[in-house]
Amino acid sequence: MTDERSHGRRRPPIAWRKVDGILLLDKPPGISSNGALQVVRRALRAAKGGHTGNLDVAASGLLPLCFGEATKVCGFLLESDKRYHASVRLGEVTRTGDAEGEVIASSLSRPRDAAEIEAALDSLRGAQMQVPPMYSALKHGGRPLYELARRGVEVARAPREISVYALELLHFDGETLTLDVHCSKGTYVRSLAVALGERLGCGAHLAGLRRLVAGPFSVVDAVPLRTFSEGLYPEDALDELLRPMDTALGGLPRVELTGEDSHRFRQGQRVRVSPGLGPEGATARVYDASGAFCGIGVVEPGGVLQPQRLLRLA
Questions:
Q1: Fold held by 82-214
Q2: pLDDT tens, 85-122?
Q3: pLDDT for 42-95, tens place per residue?
Q4: Distance CA 54, CA 85 (A)
Q5: In whole angstroms, what is the distance from residue 81 CA to residue 86 CA?
Q6: pLDDT tens, 6-24?
Q7: Does residue 274 surpass a pLDDT of 80?
Q8: Contact by Cβ (8 Å): 76, 215
Q9: Domain 252-310 -> CATH class
Q10: Torsion 110-114-119-121 (CA) sign
Q11: Residue ranges of the domains in the chain?
């Protein structure tokens, strides 16, 4: 071996720094969401960072990453709707519900026509209850379910309410369906693929998945992981790829405070705002008189705004 360790040298420690902002990453297949996060975090030397919802190792596409103070808005992206392109392989049921697992059942049966496919898709649209698969990152007793599943242990999982807003057939070659899926948070597309196979009577599994949209963000604006892994750009050029953290909150009402009120808000104190901001419990993004983003507030009775998330940018 000819790496640095073989010559008795160690890589210098990373000089972590404060980085604030959102990075839209186009994650390739073959790496975990956390693995991709760490590649970007090291390239930026960002002291703090997090991703906004796990994207399976085999899946690709949009993975918003939040750094520094932007981690305070991660929750809003976790709660957001998602859109995917999914490939569904008919005639094969796998242990994991996707292409990573062994085939445990197969069938030569296939849909008779497009009308049969459309009827099956229609049955999967709308609000419904979905049981999370055992091969998932959800935890039971502090351990991911997939770890238990690999040991042959199955535990009861409570069904969750999800919504499939759109489920459209884009292509069918006789063996594989390509679907456009627009769904709520917490939807397991692999479970939709398995359910589709059951309704068609031939079995199916998720053969491929690409996330196109998460909340207000699109993969067309995302940066490939190789931008960070290959070290082709200077650090300041990478910083320019970061987006302001309030871009994740475009759907929330905007409140601009006067100098005195913005100071009080930044100190964690309630401030009175004009009526009509929203119903009690509504969330708003808050700015000072100069237009600087201060944080997130919650409307309380009587037109009072209670700080919920405050930014510490100084």
A1: Pseudouridine synthase (3.30.2350)
A2: 999 999 999 999 999 999 999 999 999 888 999 999 99
A3: 999 999 999 988 899 999 999 999 999 999 988 888 889 999 999 999 999 999
A4: 16
A5: 16
A6: 455 677 888 899 999 999 9
A7: no
A8: yes
A9: mainly beta
A10: positive
A11: 15-79+217-247, 82-214, 252-310
pLDDT of residue 128: 96
> DSSP label at 33?
H
Token pair belonging to 185 = 């948070």
Q: Cα(33)–Cα(40) distance, rounded to whole angstroms?
A: 11
Answer yes or no: same fold for 15-79+217-247 and 252-310: no
The catalytic residues are 56
CA-CA distance, 58 to 133, in Å (whole number)? 16
Cα gap 100→102, rounded to integer Å: 7
Which residues have C-beta within 8 Å of that of residue 119, sequence separation ≥ 6? none
Strand bridging mode 92-94 / 82-90: unpaired
Q: CB-based burial of residue 169 (10 Å sphere; 0-12 exposed, 13-18 middle, 19+ buried)?
A: middle
Q: Which of 35-39, 138-142, 256-260 has the lowest mean pLDDT?
A: 138-142
d(CA 220, CA 170): 19
Half-sphere exposure of 221 (CA within 13 A, CB side): 13
What residues contact 153, with CB distance under 8 A and at least 6 apart?
A: none
CATH of domain 15-79+217-247: 3.30.2350.10
Alpha helices in 93-170 (DSSP H): 114-122, 145-150
Strands (E), the chain: 21-27, 49-51, 60-67, 82-90, 92-94, 103-106, 126-130, 139-140, 143-144, 160-172, 176-183, 204-214, 217-218, 223-224, 254-256, 271-272, 283-287, 293-300, 304-310
Long-range contacts for 119-123 (Cβ within 8 Å, ≥24 apart)?
A: 120/196, 120/199, 120/200, 121/167, 121/168, 121/169, 121/179, 121/196, 123/199
Residues 104 and 95 sit within 8 Å (Cβ to Cβ):
yes
Distance CA 15, CA 284 (A): 36
